[in-house]
Amino acid sequence: GENVEQHPSTLSVQEGDSAVIKCTYSDSASNYFPWYKQELGKGPQLIIDIRSNVGEKKDQRIAVTLNKTAKHFSLHITETQPEDSAVYFCAASNELTGGGNKLTFGTGTQLKVEL
Amino acid sequence: DAGVIQSPRHEVTEMGQEVTLRCKPISGHNSLFWYRQTMMRGLELLIYFNNNVPIDDSGMPEDRFSAKMPNASFSTLKIQPSEPRDSAVYFCASSPPPTGLYNEQFFGPGTRLTVL
């Protein structure tokens, strides 16, 4: 089955700096890579995703890059703000497997944005 | 939309007792997922259903765990008997039928289970 590794487990940055979280996956058939943000006491929420037919996707201060050859993908947050402090999870899925859209999650990164 | 609804939000029970967690997915969604989150193991998929049918239960830790989805608007996760190592936050998530390759899972607020 799929195995997703995520680094770092904790990340502390100064407000305004950039933050980068990296993930690797094992199944070359995986073709969908979402990122979820989990705030304290809440369930994870999708913030951005990328499919294997593109190498980069951007949404305002958030961008995700994908290297299919190396089987790794990264989340980039620019101009970090205190409200970006949360746990971030990467995930991978093979949408070709059909019904259920099973995701395999990484172990999470606790991001802290300090004033 | 009310989002995914889970109950109870918190459950404290004693070892050996039966625990039932409940989930109401978003209306119109046809896939439902049960996850367990702990500090040690992160977010683990326990089981998921598609059109009320269990598709993959390989993540269910042992026979003490069982899940049902009797209809499109309700699912339960039962632990019997419960053990202290079952203490965790249990999340339910649902996703709509794929439109193109749409795949987002919407998570509920979770149930924090403590087994004493």
Description:
- The complex is a heterodimer of chains A (115) and B (116).
- Chain A has strands at 4-7, 10-14, 19-25, 32-38, 45-51, 56-59, 62-67, 72-77, 86-92, 104-105, 109-114.
- Chain A is an all-beta fold and 115 residues long.
- In chain A, strands 2, 4, 5, 9, 10 and 11 form a 6-stranded mixed beta sheet that branches.
- Chain A is globular and about 45 Å long.
- Chain A starts with a strand and ends with a strand.
- The mean pLDDT of chain A is 92.
- Chain B has 116 residues and is mostly beta strands.
- Chain B is built from no helices and 11 strands.
- In chain B, the strands form 2 sheets. In chain B, strands 2, 4, 5, 6, 9, 10 and 11 form a 7-stranded mixed beta sheet that branches. In chain B, strands 1-3-8-7 form a 4-stranded antiparallel beta sheet, with no helix packed on it.
- Chain B is globular, with a radius of gyration of 14 Å.
- Chains A and B meet through strand 4, strand 5 and strand 10 of A and strand 5, strand 9 and strand 10 of B.
Descriptive terms for the model:
heterodimer, A: 115 residues, mainly beta, six-stranded mixed β-sheet, 11 strands, B: 116 residues, seven-stranded mixed β-sheet
Mind summarizing the main beta sheet of chain B? 7 strands, mixed
Count of helical stretches of chain A: 0
**Approximately how much beta-strand content do the residues of chain A carry?**
over 45%
**Helix and strand element order of chain B:** EEEEEEEEEEE
List the helices and strands of chain A in order: EEEEEEEEEEE
Please bin the fraction of helical residues of chain B.
under 10%
How far apart are the termini of chain B?
Answer: 36 Å
Greatest interface and its participating residue counts:
A-B, 24 and 25 residues
Low-confidence stretches of chain A: none
What best-fitting shape of chain B do the alpha-carbon axes yield? globular
Q: Main sheet of chain A, how many strands, which sense, barrel? A: 6 strands, mixed
Low-confidence stretches of chain B: none
Number of helices of chain B: 0
* Strand segment tally of chain A: 11
Alpha-beta classification of chain B? mainly beta
